[in-house]
Please model this.
Amino acid sequence: MPKKGRRRTGTEEEHQTPCKQAKVELMCPLLTKYDHPESVFESLIFPIKQEEFFRDYWEQKPLLLKRENPSVESYYQSLFQLTDLKSLVSQGLYYGRDINVCKYVNGRKKIFNKGGQVSYAQLKKEFDQKKATVQFHQPQRFKDELWRIQEKLECFFGSLVGSNVYITPPGSQGLPPHYDDVEVFILQLEGKKHWRLYQPTVNLAQEYNVEPEDKIGTPTHDFLLKPGDLLYFPRGTIHQADTPPGVSHSTHVTISTCQNNSWRDLLLDVIPGLVLDSAKDDIDFRKSIPRQLLMKLDLSEPSKRLSGFLRHLSHQLENGGELKSSDMKKDFIMNRLPPFLGTSFDSLTPGGKLPTVDSTIRLQFKDYTVITVEPDQDPLDDTHKEMVYIYHSLKNKRETHMMGDNNMNEEGVFQMHGLRFPLSHMDALKQIWSYDTICVNELNLTSDAEKENLVVSLWSELLIEVI
Model:
């Protein structure tokens, strides 16, 4: 068995937070404020300040927060417990999709999934007798407390935020040493977990990979997490964790974000649109490539030509060229959580007065919208003119979050929620999105009818309110 309880002391990576004073204790419980994404994140990493975290830790090195505070421990345990499993399994969960049962044995991960619907009796048997770990996928689909946290963190990061719960019996380990392609926040909920972190072989990795134990070297960090503790580490950090003997069990939740959200991904998203736009105005982009180019092995000469095109694109950007990031924006907004309001948006109707040209309006749910410029998607219009699309996540399905089928209709087609406007409406939309409040008659549109139609459409989608 690995050594237990050894951890580095006196390092900048670890922060002791006893919260002895009553005033400080009031600030320690996680997520005392749900109204703003920044306050949620700041509560998550308390007492580290946001500026310090992104300057010294984010994408750079692990951060361990040790919290000796009963109120934090109590709050963490409300997120998920072993006792939650029985009631959740009774709702109809399936092996593979919702739950994995696994154990790290002789250098490999052994899977105990039975297939089909999960039986709690079978799950308990694997847990008690085979010392298998229960991995619960995306518990925010069922636990409101995690839904509240993760939808605000999606606003904060502007990226999808998923989670998994791991429940491991004593003297056991569920997963082999590996690294992930996501930024990871570990919240210890119940019991104790022994963690070992290792030097990355691929910094800021963009894929998941298992690493053989004989190749990962000596741990850079070795410590125990107790309820209320938090651990952060960047993607690519090699890690493994086990529950020490003598502990009843360990429960922790892994909250992860920023998968496929790098500059690489943004470039892959925006460059095609930039090239197509440039080709409309510059004939050089439309000229044929040299004959038989695709048959040649030596591409050094055409590489110089491609460098010239890239310089042209760079010049376009530096002089105010427009970047169109439609795919990444749509993927994010289509697959993220809806806001936590305690009710379904499908049952909500616009409230308050119907807006008129004399109304003063205010934008609602700004953090849950994206605006894109795309070719008209109307199948009856073959002109391919550009339109402004506003997409939102207000009617997304919490039950399918991060499961690969969010917003899929009965025909298996993904549906986006939102509105479409002529490109001439972009300036008016920018006004609404930029100001706290604005009078409808001040919108940059040519007629009162256009102004009124615009705000009524937004009001009907719950995106604005009349004040």
Remarks:
- The CA atoms of residues 16 and 371 lie 43 Å apart.
- The domain at 263-318 is CATH 1.10.10.1500 (Arc Repressor Mutant, subunit A).
- Residues 263-281 form the longest helix (19 residues).
